[in-house]
């Protein structure tokens, strides 16, 4: 007599991922993190949702994901669902709403001032150091020895 053992199909869905939160938020990305789900066999993957659209799937051992390509100063909602290898899907995690930060214009540092020198051509906005003070050129000119920044304020503005 031969005995066969019947395999019971896995019909139990994993528990919902919990504690979904935004770890970091920038102007164009959000780093999501969550606590893992449990399953009677094993969690095989997590689906990441932006609103109702699935945007990514990660391995069941991973509990973070970086969403990129977002617009600055915009609001998004995210949730996570767990899946097992039998295709059972959990209910959604908590839903979070994230607003990306405003993108700021690049910071332009002024050119480092150069030492003032005679017989040098200066342009409006040029910055120089003379006697340990910084001056900004007010009028384009070629310097001569008597037109020093501290003496000719028509040409130089103290910073």
TrEMBL record:
Q: What InterPro entries does UniProt report for this protein, alphabetically?
A: CBM5/12 (IPR003610), CBM_sf_5/12 (IPR036573), FN3_dom (IPR003961), FN3_sf (IPR036116), Ig-like_fold (IPR013783)
Which residues belong to any copy of the Fibronectin type-III domain? 16-103
Keyword Cell inner membrane assigned to the entry: answer is no
Which Gene3D superfamilies does this UniProt record tie to the protein? Carbohydrate-binding module superfamily 5/12 (2.10.10.20), Immunoglobulins (2.60.40.10)
Q: Which CDD domains match?
A: ChiA1_BD (cd12214), FN3 (cd00063)
Alphabetical list of Pfam families matching this protein: CBM_5_12 (PF02839), fn3 (PF00041)
Keywords per UniProt? Carbohydrate metabolism, Hydrolase, Polysaccharide degradation
Name this polypeptide is given: Carbohydrate-binding protein
Its source organism is Paenibacillus illinoisensis
